[in-house]
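TICKET: design request
STATUS: open
ATTACHED STRUCTURE:
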């Protein structure tokens, strides 16, 4: 049989230890016992970001672009930031403190600096409190802008003193970024450039045409160049030029043609000559000329020639013949 405990006058002892409360009761019921009575109701900080993804504008190698997200503590207690990191070719900077109070915020800036042409992806991860948030990153690296010239060298051949010969040049940008042609310099006596309005912006894949002419003022061979200057990091481009001024032989003849320019946007003009009125006509120039005049020096005294002109647009489409003109070359 269990021996009963002697009856002791009840007493109440209240112990306060740190933040816990213990209640010890001694009485007739038996030996003393203890029970922890505790409760906690705590809230944690919560991470909120202003965007779930960041897209960057297209960049060339050795260039960069930045985008930012706002980070806010949307919880009801302070938020301890454990880590902010990115993956891929991206990098980040931030002004976030170690702890964000309730409702407080900071900014995380992500930079995109590609190293190779193509599409780059990554992730911005923000970890704090008991959770984390991720922001997807997307950027594209394109080939840098380029300046391509065709032709890179022009030979005008023999041009009679006082006359002019013209050639068409195409400038294009085969790269992935816009470039700006900011200046043009011509070197060499008698050479000139026309049809180029500066500064000229060429978007990716865009092209333009301009003319280089040679108008000698004396006999002899001449060399020179045309240099195009760019405002960015694209290298300058130079076109080599050459030509020779000649004096017409005594008693020789030539026919000078002039016409009104087309009111449409044209790339140049072809001139044709025939020996019979109404044709057939033979083309006198292998490429369109950018001028509204042409000198035919290959004529013979005592003959009659018939001329027509056509206009050519940027796509190479040629117009119908102009009205015919007649030139009678004197015999002497």
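STATUS: resolved
RESOLUTION: sequence designed for all positions
ATTACHED SEQUENCE:
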């Amino acid at each position: 049989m269990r021996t009963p405990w002697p009856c002791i006058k009840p007493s109440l002892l209240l112990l306060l230890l740190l933040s816990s409360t213990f209640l010890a009761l001694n009485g007739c019921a038996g030996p003393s016992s203890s029970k922890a009575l505790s409760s906690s109701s705590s809230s944690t900080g919560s991470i909120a970001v202003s965007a779930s993804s960041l897209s960057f504008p297209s960049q060339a190698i050795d260039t960069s672009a930045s985008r930012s997200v706002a980070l806010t503590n949307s919880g009801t207690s302070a938020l301890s930031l454990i880590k902010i990191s990115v993956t891929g070719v991206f990098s980040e900077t931030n002004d976030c403190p170690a702890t964000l109070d309730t409702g407080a915020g900071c900014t995380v800036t992500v930079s995109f600096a590609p190293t190779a042409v193509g599409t780059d992806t990554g992730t911005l991860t923000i970890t704090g409190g008991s959770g984390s948030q991720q922001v997807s990153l997307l950027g594209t690296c394109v080939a840098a802008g380029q300046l391509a010239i065709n032709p890179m060298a022009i030979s005008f051949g023999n041009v009679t003193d006082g006359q002019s010969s013209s050639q068409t040049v195409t400038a294009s940008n085969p790269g992935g970024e816009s470039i700006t042609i900011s200046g043009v310099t011509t070197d060499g006596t008698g050479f000139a450039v026309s049809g180029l309005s500066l500064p000229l912006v060429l978007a990716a894949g865009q092209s333009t045409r301009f003319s280089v002419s040679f108008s000698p003022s004396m006999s002899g061979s001449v060399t020179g160049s045309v240099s195009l200057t760019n405002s960015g990091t694209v290298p300058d481009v130079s076109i080599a030029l050459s030509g020779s001024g000649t004096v017409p032989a005594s008693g020789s003849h030539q026919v000078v043609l002039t016409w009104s320019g087309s009111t449409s946007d044209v790339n140049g003009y072809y001139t044709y000559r025939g020996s019979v009125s109404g044709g057939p006509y033979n083309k006198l120039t292998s490429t369109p000329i950018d001028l509204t005049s042409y000198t035919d020096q290959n004529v013979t005294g005592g003959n009659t020639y018939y001329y027509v002109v056509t206009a050519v647009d940027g796509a190479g489409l040629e117009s119908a013949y102009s009205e015919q003109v007649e030139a009678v070359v004197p015999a002497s």
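CLOSING REMARK: The domain at 51-142 is CATH 2.60.40.10 (Immunoglobulin-like). The chain has three domains: 51-142, 148-247, 251-332.
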